[in-house]
Amino acid sequence: MTATATSRLPDVSGSAFNLRSFLHGLPGVDKVGVEARAASLGTRSVKTTAKAAAIDLAIRMVDLTTLEGSDTPGKVRALSAKAVRPDPSDPTCPSVAAICVYPAMVPVAAEVLAGTGVHLASVATAFPSGQAPLDVKLADTRDAVAGGADEIDMVISRGAFLSGRYDHVYDEIVAVKEACGSAHLKVILETGELGTYDNVRRASWLAMLAGADFIKTSTGKVPVAATLPVTLVMLEAVRDFRAQTGRQVGVKPAGGIRTTKDAIKYLVLINETVGDDWLDPDWFRFGASSLLNDLLMQRTKLTTGHYAGPDYFTLD
């Protein structure tokens, strides 16, 4: 499928570095091979105690998300409480990794999450289009961090990337990373709009070279969101990037991941592609809203032997 380059990366900040040449010099993606590999791994099954552990791990990896124009403070408070105690009737149920909201809702979520260990993520930089001047994107980011966000999910300018203005995209990510301060930066590639797996690989490397802490598939606002083959390409990119730089970068598929079966497919994909180092909420997240309830229903089934009713868990 892919070839891992053996040479060390050149100095990106050096005047001799040509970002376009580097990105177009990356090994091409074998489309048939990637899709066949992803399909094969997607048939693996996980049973009994291993399934219970996988469900708890998946819960711990969820970025519980609400990104609607109709979001209210009450909804965000309720969702934040659910992030901390997903199943109030079961104290053994783990918390999720983070809650993800719009910048205006960050202070509301911050009140509920203070001291809980659950991260507070906020989409910024003119989410979901990314079509705004850089100073607006930076102000958006700084406001979210000032409000209490410790993770920022930014969107790249797909128009700039697709027209080959890689330096423009790179410079924006660098600037947003600086505006994040100590907050982690997740860079959303919006892979459904990139067109090819080669572009997904190029965008992944571009984001990592610019300082991304995570690379993320999608906003969830376009028809094609996360897929197993795209996530496989991104996992291979972070694996190869660490091999060459020594720096580990996380991956976050988002959009369209709704069932426990879906989540377990991604966990298998991680295990078989990059190994245990990424099987941790610090390095892999699910961007999801409806996934958590299905995980909770499956968890209840394993614990009690029967499914909870569809109205047992809160609807988000």
From TrEMBL:
It catalyses: 2-deoxy-D-ribose 5-phosphate = D-glyceraldehyde 3-phosphate + acetaldehyde. Pathway: Carbohydrate degradation; 2-deoxy-D-ribose 1-phosphate degradation; D-glyceraldehyde 3-phosphate and acetaldehyde from 2-deoxy-alpha-D-ribose 1-phosphate: step 2/2. Its EC number is 4.1.2.4. The keyword Lyase applies. SMART domains: DeoC. Gene3D superfamilies: Aldolase class I (3.20.20.70). GO terms for molecular function: deoxyribose-phosphate aldolase activity. Keywords: Lyase, Schiff base. GO terms for biological process: carbohydrate catabolic process; deoxyribonucleotide catabolic process. GO terms for cellular component: cytoplasm. The keyword Lyase applies. Pfam families: DeoC (PF01791). Belongs to the DeoC/FbaB aldolase family. DeoC type 2 subfamily. This is Deoxyribose-phosphate aldolase. It comes from Actinoplanes friuliensis DSM 7358.
